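Quarterly update from the structural biology core.
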Amino acid sequence: MSFDALQEKIRKLKNPTVAGLDARLEYIPPQLVAGCFEKYGETLEGAAQAVYRYNCDLMDALQGVVPAVKPQAAYYELLGWPGVKALADTIQYAHDKGYYVIADIKRGDIGSTAQAYAEGWLGKSKVGERAFAPFDADCVTINGYMGSDAILPFLNIAKEEGKGVFLLVKTSNPSSGELQDMIAGDRQVYTVMADLCARLGKGTEGERGYQTLGAVVGATYPAELRELRRRMERTFFLVPGYGAQGGTAEDVRHAFDRYGWGAIVNSSRGILCAWKKMENGAENYQDAARQAAEAMRDDIKKYVTIV
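Predicted structure, tokenized:
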């Protein structure tokens, strides 16, 4: 099962964190951007090449510290087809380096469309007599607020391929409560989604005890995070909101079980833009990223012990 592989990588490095690869041009050291513009022009291709090169340099720097990376598809789609190619190349490079890859796509559609998304991101696309894995992510994020029709195609492909899915449950953004905190019968909407997640994932538990269908639960709502950990004992959590959005290590500790298992915490800008906070950081951006990742790991270690 996919989350067995992720948990093993986390246990090996004693680090339950994932680096978000969400680079915009302004997040990239200027000399990298200038070099790509010189070669490819000030074009979408030049920008995409700068993002890809920066991703590769960061992944080189973070090896042995961070077990997983999480590219957000929007930042690549922003650059058109060259950006989408850079995303596919980033995933391939990450696999070559031994990272677990969470493709943050947040797709949420139904029927044949959801099936196509699932096959493209987690499964295979048949072309004539051959089958290809277009993106081959280890895991994806999805929006299930259209109901189980939007979830099951991803879950079914994930089970077939030994991969994973993270379902949006209680998100980290400030306006999430406009919908997710509303009362539906005798429950809040986010708990309705949590119960649906646990029910659909039942029977898919891996060796570590976690289901193939995980949940996105934000660090910015620690009380809800604690509540959902009790409610969803067999669900693996992806926890955004640490760092730039205001979530702390003390907040995210509620995501883990007593063994320090069952969750992974994301940081994007804190690692991507670490060079901006360092003297001569543009020349030492790899060191800056590694130091930021190590600091995050050590911060969480104060509250979470992985056995």
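The mean pLDDT is 96.
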